[in-house]
TrEMBL record, chain A:
Name assigned to this protein: ABC transporter permease
Organism: Paracoccus sphaerophysae
Domain of life of the source: Bacteria
The family this protein is said to belong to: Belongs to the leucine-binding protein family.
One Pfam family it belongs to: Peripla_BP_6
Record CDD domains: PBP1_SBP-like
Phylogenetic lineage: Bacteria, Pseudomonadati, Pseudomonadota, Alphaproteobacteria, Rhodobacterales
Single GO BP term: amino acid transport
UniProt cross-references to InterPro entries, sorted A to Z: BCAA_transport, Leu-bd, Peripla_BP_I
PANTHER family for this protein: LEUCINE-SPECIFIC-BINDING PROTEIN, PERIPLASMIC BINDING PROTEIN OF ABC TRANSPORTER FOR NATURAL AMINO ACIDS
From TrEMBL, chain B:
Name this protein carries in UniProt: ABC transporter permease
The family this protein is said to belong to: Belongs to the binding-protein-dependent transport system permease family. LivHM subfamily.
Subcellular location: Cell membrane
Major location (coarse): membrane
Pfam families in the cross-refs: BPD_transp_2
Bilayer topology: Multi-pass membrane protein
Transmembrane domains' residue ranges: 12-39, 69-87, 102-122, 143-168, 196-220, 232-259, 265-285
Organism: Paracoccus sphaerophysae
Keywords in alphabetical order: Amino-acid transport, Cell membrane, Membrane, Transmembrane, Transmembrane helix, Transport
Length: 399, 295
């Protein structure tokens, strides 16, 4: 390591001052996600703020090159996301794109970034395709994916006797991926899937779908959706007496911002999987507190992961001594991740950042000691078990 | 088991009822829009925002002032109605003599401003609001579990829709109102304060939206986005019913709610576009809408 620094220093002396190593004199991070719709609470401007916090830790610059963080709203539409990405890369000197909530948009932007040889660090999108068929030497996936969610939540519930499932699935890439992965886990553990229904995202009224789930008689109703869709489903499931009738609800992607929106009264007892919880250790608490002072809310795992990914990206630039894509991507692949989000995280050959994920159960209102005290830790699933091995991911980069 | 169109009759009846519940919201919202358009010739794009404000008044009233649900049913429409009156008096009324496009643009801007403001304060994730104790729980019907609250929504919406229709079509006040829009200067010459009538009409429309908002609060999350999610559908309802036709708006609201509910059984993926498909077909066959007057 020391010799590396020496070489870098020597090279710097030989060639030019530090700023000149940056391709255009500055480092510009774009945070592209849903800033107004159903997923804006779990990512949104919170992710933008988290990326800014990472930049500030570096004093706002690396060498002489200033770090700039910009954000935009893709409205969960792949065409809008693609247009913004092209504009950012072509005319606004954006070096990399972060967050990319909504898998369909993430996949579209990933393809454009590949073509333009730019690094993407997905923290909001969840489909395993990002590190599978659509993997890229410059593409990274932080926070979570549908495989990890399925292994953790699906596996735990089948073990607890929930061996027949019915899915309420969001009608797009992420929903399919989550349903498919969970189905595999459930069937692998000896359970069976009785049926599914696919709803358009942002449907707001789910009673028709919930009635079908109820009529199926499945022991577990798996909600393969996210954000406000899932919130409304949980609220309305209570109304139609789904849980009172003996069926269990599994929020396959539920984050703390959703639980906060629902309130403990409606959310208590739910099982869910996250890769970050603010009240886990000193580092996570310190980051969360700082984040809350700026935004008024605790960070979701997507927001915390955006901070982690931005920090790692900037560290990689520092280590590489340049923001040139190949060099930074190589550093990102080799450096361990150690921060408020992950302990001993590592990046696999397919771009997947692997760290522990946690199965939580939402506390009862009387157990909670205060605002944002929401989870009981049920199990810690080591990253190697939660995520697919790079060899099995279907990524062409892995031999 | 008896089957109908290849699905069990139980499921069919259940979906029919669910469709009626959604139809209740469509009817209530499109009613307000139809009243405002029919009498003021203003396309009120802020209707969704006023619906959202109604839900927020209920939520904030309960949180900060302890106003219970039943009181909110009265308070929220009054507050939002008064706000509507203020907007109409100070801004919207200046646009009556211009092209209707200006009113549309103004209310659209107003909707964006209101939504943006609420999102700034409360974020996009929803706020919880519980149904009153008397309306929680469910009735077990032979073909489905019917939450009591949903049954209440159907009844409340039907009563309000009929009352408003009767007010405008059957009473003297309603007759004056209709006359005032046909020929304002003539009605004014009878000593009737026409601008005041128009203000009250806009306030009534806004109040109806707020009432729908309070009814919706316990079912959906109270969220700044709840209005923009529903407003486009409601516009489609008004267009299908015939712009400005009050009875048309009510009947079409229920009909489209049911059509949407049934689509959720047969082909769920299409459930959010079926209303627009129907709208396109109606516009081709009957451009003035189902209940609209030709020309």
């Amino acid at each position: 390591m020391k010799s590396l620094y020496l070489t870098a220093a020597a090279a710097a002396l030989l060639v030019t001052p530090a700023a000149a190593e940056m391709t255009d004199g500055k480092i510009k991070i774009g945070v592209l996600n849903d800033q107004s719709g159903v997923y804006s609470a779990l990512g949104g401007t919170g992710s933008l703020e988290a990326a800014k916090m990472a930049a500030e830790e570096f004093g706002g610059k690396i060498g002489d090159a200033p770090i700039e963080v910009v954000g935009a709203d893709h409205q969960n539409k792949a065409d809008i996301g693609s247009n913004i990405a092209r504009q950012w890369y072509d005319t606004e000197q954006v070096d990399t794109i972060f967050d990319l909530t909504t898998s369909s948009v993430a996949l579209a932007v990933r393809a454009i970034s590949d073509e333009k040889k730019k690094i993407t660090m997905v923290t909001g999108g969840g489909t395993t395709e990002l590190t599978g068929k659509a993997c890229s030497p410059y593409g990274f996936h932080w926070a979570y994916d549908t495989h990890a969610l399925a292994v953790s939540t699906g596996g735990a519930l089948v073990k607890a006797g929930g061996d027949s499932w019915y899915f309420l699935t969001a009608d797009y890439a992420f929903g399919y991926s989550l349903e498919e992965n969970t189905t595999k886990t459930v069937e692998g553990a000896g359970g069976k899937v009785l049926g599914n229904v696919r709803f358009p995202i942002g449907a707001t009224d789910y009673s028709a779908f919930l009635l079908q789930a109820q009529a199926s008689g499945a022991k577990v109703v798996g909600l393969a959706s996210a954000g406000m869709d899932t919130q409304n489903q949980i609220k309305q499931a209570a109304e139609f007496g789904i849980t009172a009738g003996g069926q269990n609800l599994a929020g396959l992607l539920l984050m703390i911002t959703d639980v906060h929106g629902l309130g403990l009264q409606a959310a208590q007892g739910l099982y869910l999987t996250e890769s970050y919880y603010w009240d886990r250790n000193d580092a996570s608490r310190a980051f969360a507190q700082k984040y809350k002072e700026r935004t008024g809310a605790m960070p979701s795992m997507v927001q915390a992961a955006t901070y982690s990914a931005a920090r790692q990206y900037l560290k990689a630039i520092e280590a590489a001594g340049t923001d040139e894509t190949e060099a930074v991507a190589a550093k990102l692949h080799e450096m361990p991740v150690q921060d408020a989000f992950a302990e001993n995280g590592k990046v696999l050959a397919n771009g997947r950042m692997v760290s522990d994920v946690y199965l939580f159960q939402v506390k009862k209102p009387e157990e909670s000691k205060g605002e944002w005290d929401y989870y009981n830790l049920i199990a810690t699933i080591p990253g190697e078990e939660a995520y697919m091995k790079a060899e099995d991911s279907g990524c062409a980069l892995v031999k | 088991m008896t089957m109908i169109f290849g699905i069990p009759i139980q499921a069919f009846l259940g979906q029919l009822l669910v469709g009626l519940i959604n139809g209740s919201f469509y009817a209530l919202l499109s009613l307000g829009l139809a009243v405002i358009f029919g009498l003021l010739r203003v396309i009120n794009f802020a209707h969704g925002a006023q619906y959202m404000l109604g839900a927020f008044v209920a939520f904030l009233g309960l949180k900060h002032l302890g106003i219970p649900y039943w009181a909110a049913l009265v308070v929220a429409p009054l507050v939002v109605g008064a706000f509507g009156a203020l907007i109409e008096r100070t801004m919207l009324s200046r646009l009556y003599n211009l092209d209707p496009l200006y009113g549309l643009l103004f209310t659209f801007g107003l909707a964006l401003t209101l939504e943006g403001t609420m999102r700034w304060y409360y974020g996009a994730s929803g706020q919880p609001y519980s149904a009153p104790a008397a309306l929680t729980g469910a009735i077990k019907l032979p073909f489905m579990v019917l939450p009591i609250y949903r049954a209440w929504v159907i009844v409340a919406s039907l009563v309000v829709c009929l009352a408003v229709w009767a007010l405008i079509e059957k009473t003297r006040l309603g007759a004056t109102l209709r006359a005032a829009t046909e020929n304002p200067s003539l009605v004014q010459s009878f000593g009737i304060n026409v601008p005041m009538l128009l203000t009250l009409t806009y306030a009534l429309g806004a109040g109806l939206a707020a009432l729908a908002g309070v009814l919706a609060a316990p079912i959906y999350q109270v969220s700044p986005l709840m209005g923009s999610n529903i407003i486009i559908v409601v516009f489609a309802v008004v267009v299908v019913g015939g712009m400005g036709s009050i009875l048309g708006a009510i009947v079409t609201g229920y009909l489209l709610g049911v059509a949407e509910g049934l689509t959720k059984v047969f082909y769920p993926e299409a459930s959010n576009i079926v209303i627009f498909v129907i709208m396109a077909i109606v516009l081709i066959l009957r451009p003035a809408g189902l209940f609209g007057k030709e020309g």
